Amino acid sequence: FSVVVVSPRVAKPLGPGKVDLGKPGYRMGYVQAKVVDPYKTIPIKVTTAKDVYKPRETVKATVQIGQNNDHQQEPYEIAIAVVDESVLALNHSGDNYYDPYAGFNRLDSLDVYNYSLISRLVGRQKFEKKGANPGGGGASYSKLRNMFKFVSYWNPSITPDSNGKAEIEFEVPDNLTGWRILAFAVTPNDRMGLGDVNFKVNRPTEIRPVMPNQVIEGDNFKAGFNVKNRTDQPRTLNINVAVAGPITDTTDNAFEYNLPLAPFERKNIWLPIATKGDGTLKFVAAAGDDFDGDAVEHKVPVQKYRSLETAANYGTTTAAIVSETVKIPAGIHNDVGYVGAIVSPSVIGNLDGAFNYLKNYPHLCWEQRLTKAVSANSYLQLREYLAKNIKWDNPQDDISKTLLAAANFQAPNGGMAYWVPQNNYVSPYLSAYTAMAFNWLNSSGYKIPAAVEEQLHNYLLKLLRRDEFPTFYSKGMASSVRAVALAALADTGKITASDVQRYELHMPEMDLFGKAHFLTAAIKTAAVAESTIITTLDSILGHADQSGGKFQFNEPWDDSYKYILSTPLRSNCAVLSSLLDVQTNLMQSESIDDIPFKLVRSITQSRGDRDHWENTQENLYCMNALMDYAAIYENTEPNMDIAVSFAGKKLGNAVFTSKTDAPKPLMRQLNEKDPGQQAKIKISKSGAGRFYYSTRIAYDLKEENSSRINSGFEIQREYSVERDGKFTLLKSPMVIKRGELVKVDLFISLPTARHFVVVDDTVPGGLEPINTDLATASSVDAEKGSYKAAEGSWFYNFSDWSYYGRFFWSFYHKELKHDAVRYYADYLPAGNYRLSYSAQAIAAGEFAVPAVAVEEMYDADVYGKGLPVTLMVTE
Q1: Cβ–Cβ contacts within 10 Å for residue 685, how many?
Q2: Most buried of the four, 81, 94, 391, 742, by CB within 10 Å?
Q3: Which tens digit of pLDDT belongs to each residue from 49-79?
Q4: 3-state secondary structure 788-823
């Protein structure tokens, strides 16, 4: 590398490879580096004994590393992979993908990547079997080709001889395809090189399967075989096909044909197949004459037509025994489904990342300093829920230093500012939040600076009596901030019942965060009328959305509330703390019931796959709410043995000795005796502690649903086909032609935020999704999935659709497989979502299309289902 340092007044050279940048100062310079002598690649030549082989034949190959006078003594190591050319063709980057120097001789944006040799040479897992030839020529007419691989040889460490030469031998599988030998060499001094060679495997006679990737029980389709005469003479081939597996009694299991073929001609033959039950269809096909022949085995999976529905109930108790009656529906399939319970010692979990996030938070405005100090206090109280390797060194010192710095952010009028302590920079919300935080720290024994607190309280009292808010504050924002101030001052006895009741008229215009604090202020202020508390509680509960295992609060969202750092999750956490205040101070357990632990489940799942919540306010309020919950519900260390039984028969047991022990499922599969049975799930506990349980049953009804199911989600699916340049909506039974392009649109609506959502759309046997991750897929066809919706589509019912990948919090991962298309989201706000993909009709027949489904992965009773349809593909 050649390095040039500009600005000679600052820098001076010290010798080769070194430079003195001088003393720190304001004079600017820059360092420029460029490659002037890039590494030379190792020349590698790969050769094979011949260019064309037969299946199961032994291939001999030689790798020769070219010698260089400067590196004759340098040791080499060679990695060799032999990969199916049709798999390599799936890669968009072509040969450059495997070039080890592709990223060495250019400067990219700053980032870190892992270089994986095996993924480069062997291929990525997502390639699967798409594009690779499953059939092809055989060693002879009598030998069955049934060994198909996509990597026929792999050796990561071969040492060449002193002349730089290495030889390998391997037997190719039964694929009729081209093969690529890739040889990758490297030295200890980081010299590298890549060499390759191609060879082919074929037969004079070739027979390949042409049929669906999979089918569903009950499907009827045409199984095809493609036959080729790979000679320069006309031939008549005798073809025999046998099929075994789940077929109907009326389906022939043997077929015979005589097929005339011109030189190098291909033709298809078609066999009518009707399926019955699930399993695997096994085809054995042979084609040949006196000169040559080929035989191949091909398997097609036949899937069960099953779609589970889940019913669940959630609870928590410290009692020794709890039981629930379960009625298993009579008209169900008895070969799928389960019954049982999931038990856990705690509903609080995975707090490690939240503490690491706040402990190491880099910005130091007053809100963030204060939040970090309160979090340090929470760390001391929640350590039992954290992994042993989570350490916060000297949390008390962090708290004390923050309190000492409070005066540096207090303006002359007593309010608090984020950075500059001047009256015109004071934030009313930050001031009220500071008073709340001081109360939390004071209750844990920390001494609050008296002068700062007194001036702050005086500022908040004036704020309650005067309209001194910034002009951008709406009435709802101002009322919500006043509610936080009321809650903070109520803790210190600075307000009276008349102060609280004066603002009751403004309670309806507050957001949920404000209502939660107003409820807390009313509870903690003496002589406040009980009717005020009940009215506020009812107003909060009116925003609730409940499922079997979760409770959430929703409200119409106004972006202007971001000025006071509002988020829906922060509001839910504040509501949880206020509901716990209702339970403990007013003994209103009946009106609150099991809301707190269900709300905790929502809060802990809201992180998605992240290890912390979105911002400092969410992390602080969520941890405080969890701390409040733990103090009431989980104040006993667990030491218990829990047993679960159904209909008097034990399903298993779980032992919990720590609140951090993982939940344990105790279930069994449904069997032929279960349909119509009514019995009890009994959960017995011995030992101390509270446990949480979810009793569940999952089943599949034999009779198809005649209407969509909305159990927390609404989902609809539309098929449309491209004809005459536009898409036409299809209705069941849907009729299309083989080769036509189909667009599949999925519409999901949800009334409240959901977590860990999966959409699962079964692909019928006659279709194959177009996957643009693969280089062989038509990007033009795939992009048609995003074109204008067909006339009459559900799309036109709403105007606020969110699309795949549009936002960070929407659907962001998808899997386009042969049997199903699946979309995933860690977190979905309430709203409408549209997903779309394209598929091509590849096989003729009549195919079942099961109902599309969406569910929360960790709460299977929160789900939605569409309607099943029938797809008919004609030639």
Answers
A1: 23
A2: 742
A3: 999 998 999 999 999 987 554 445 567 788 9
A4: CCCCCCHHHHCCCEEECCCCCCCCCEEEECCCEEEE
